[in-house]
Amino acid sequence: MQLDIDISKTLKSAKRSFQLQVRFQTDSQRLVVLGPSGSGKSLLLKAIAGLIRPDQGHIHLDGTPLFDHAAKIDLPPQRRQVAYLFQDYALFPHLNVRQNIGFGLRRGLLNPRAALQHEAVDYWLDAFQLRPVAGQLPEELSGGQRQRTALARALIAQPRALLLDEPFSALDPQLRSHMRRELDELQRRLQVPMLLITHDMGVVAEVADEVAVMHYGRIVESGSVDDIFHNPQHAYTRRLLSSTVKLEQNRRAATRTENVTDRPVVMSARNMSKVYGAATSWLGGNKHAIKAVDDVSFDLHSGENLGIVGESGSGKTTLGRMLLRIVEPTSGQVLFHPGTQEQVDITALSKWQLRDFHRQVRLIFQDPFASLNPRMTVRDIVADPLVVGGQHNRKAMDDRVCELLELVGLDPAMRERYPHAFSGGQRQRIGIARALALDPKIIIADEATAALAVSIRAQILDLLLDIQKRLDLSFIFISHDISVVRYFCDRVAVMHRGKLVELGPAEQICTAPQEAYTRSLISAVPNPDPRNKRMLHRTRFTA
């Protein structure tokens, strides 16, 4: 792929002006554009695909001008022969898999060559092993099946290049490794050059031939993947690699002064199970019942960080919601130890009695963009738990909001702004401040860093560790990012198909796991070093 880009694009809003200035050339078969959220990666891909129009410059692909401001050339998206795979796949919810793939041809069903269309769709259904689900809607598919459907729709028109926007970000390590293998096989078979964007350094090391690093709308460095990782020239690239190496270590083990399992237990889960579709039929059977969580037991100690990891659908999030009784357990107990009082069986409490429990156990949500009300100021967002908890003194609430914002590293003067004025990392800090408002004893973090770039991810984890040290908090940290769990947690629980298959110290789980499934899960995590690709040494797991 010979790609020559020299473009400029300015986005203006009431609050912010953003300028994209990109110039680079490459003939790589697989180019990865790397950078944090908001750096302009998606804008770059959309400009190549023709979804946005640059203000000036040119875009040439294999010598063909797709856009040239001086020559007044601006090919429409359907004539650029470039396929764009959106981050959220953008499948039509009312069309089944076959119809979604056929839409890539942009032809109606009454076209005289309809037979050829059906033949092409059948080919891609077989190529991506989607024929068994050809009649299903996107909501009925797994994450991997949705991604394969979107890929088939993109490739059915035989594009000259494939643009992929964060193709692995929503997938767990197992699915991510599987999709990397599928993309490798696809490229070998079709010889379609690919341009990917990501903020995951492990993915870059595993899949890239060349890398372009973006920061604040500009390409600050580009070169071979080996040069970028082992001989970075720009300060931002070095900082990004430093954050990645940092997350490969266990900071918790380095700073811990005592064995946390010797401290008192603050929460216990006993034989927790959740079954969906368990209603018995008129014949007395319930063979279609799904066990989302199956007989899980563990203890959380005072001041401990307990990680819960596993692939998508393993029951991690359901277990976290059951601990808060957002989801009602089918069986089992959650025992809370509030200190001086006797232990409390949370599963036996009424909805009204749960209010006091929810003061002491709080939740940090996964998506910092969707979890904050866009119509509320930061002050109102952080103060909301105080209002619900019965605090109505405006001066006291304002003082508490300022205290919490300082605690999470934000300027209290920002409290009258709205969420759209903040970056992803700042929004997650606001979510953390809201979770701390009622002085909880336990915080459950559900994929709290999944949507953040690696440098911001390290900052948020360091912030949580510093806050924990000051307030003596306990964390249950749900994640599919093994490096984050290794860096942050004391112990790790591994879940598979609703069962707890292994529980042990974080360093032991991440480096010397005992169970076959855990070994397979760890081996699927990409290694951020192109000279030592972990994908070449995968451990397969057969249930």
Which features characterize this protein?
Rossmann fold, six-stranded mixed beta sheet, single chain, 543 residues, 2 domains, globular, alpha/beta, 21 strands, 18 helices
Distance between the termini: 41 Å
Please tell me the total number of domains. Answer: 2
Helix content: 25-40%
According to DSSP, the number of beta strands is 21
Envelope shape? globular
Spatial strand order of the main sheet:
7-8-9-3-10-11
Structural features, described:
With 543 residues, this protein is of the alpha/beta class. The chain is 34% helix and 24% strand. It is built from 18 helices and 21 strands. The strands form 4 sheets. Strands 7-8-9-3-10-11 form a 6-stranded mixed beta sheet, with helices on both faces. The chain has a 6-stranded mixed beta sheet with strand order 17-18-19-14-20-21, with helices on both faces. A hairpin with a 4-residue loop joins strand 5 (64-68) and strand 6. The longest helix is centred in the middle third of the chain and has 18 residues, at 173-190. Residues 13-18 and 107-112 have low confidence and may be disordered.
